[in-house]
Amino acid sequence: MKLYYIWDAYCGWCYGFNSIFTDFHAQHPELELETISGGLFLGDNSRAIGEYGFFESGNAKIESLYPVTFGEDYQLALSEGSMVLDSTGPAAAFALLREHVPVYRQSELAFAMQKAFFENGKSLSEVATYLPILKAFDLDEKLEEQLTLALENGHPAQLDFQKARAMGIQSYPTVIAQIGDKYYDFRGQAMTASDLEQQYQTLLDMEN
């Protein structure tokens, strides 16, 4: 079985879901997982955070369903309203950093990036945001130069965006399980790590 997890770093619902998916994934380091940045905030949908107008109500819903909070610094950034959400930066950063992180920690890496934004109000397009993450994941500080370049040109993100489009993904988060040549919705209605575990065991039974 292989899992494809399609997410976006600036997606609040992905932030909520990551809180349970990271716990589930930590229990299954053997899982073959491909984590793909989908590109939610691109083109005309990449705007200053204050222009969207629906985050407050959505965030309240997410907090009621998942064990996450939206930090004071994030709330200040939302109120101030000028930070531009562009998925290219974090997608490029993630594409670079995941090459240096074991697969079993990649969901943890994604969640750490989201915490920097949703808890600490940091832009995911600035290299300074990632320096504590490099340290937390024991990544070589020399990656800072590569990370700066990736954030500037966005090139590492493009393959992920192409993959997500080719898969027909239109909502985030999406988790797909592949068993042989068949594909299944892995996320379903899961609201807890236990729900994901139950889904996993059901699919394992089908595989065997």
CATH architecture verdict: 3-Layer(aba) Sandwich
CATH class: Alpha Beta
- Beta-strand level of the residues, as a percent range? 5-15%
- Tell me the total number of β-strands: 4
How would you classify the helix and strand content by structural class?
A: alpha+beta
Mean pLDDT: 95
| Gyration radius over CA | 17 Å
Total domain count: 1
Strand arrangement within the widest β-sheet reads: 2-1-3-4
The N- and C-terminal alpha carbons lie at a distance of 10 Å
Roughly how much helix do the residues carry, as a percent range?
40-55%
How would you portray this structure in words?
This protein has helices at residues 12-26, 55-65, 72-80, 88-97, 106-118, 127-136, 143-153, 155-166, 193-207, and strands spanning 2-7, 32-37, 174-179, 182-185. It is of the alpha+beta class and 208 residues long. A 4-stranded mixed β-sheet has the order 2-1-3-4. The longest helix has 15 residues, at 12-26. The termini are close together.
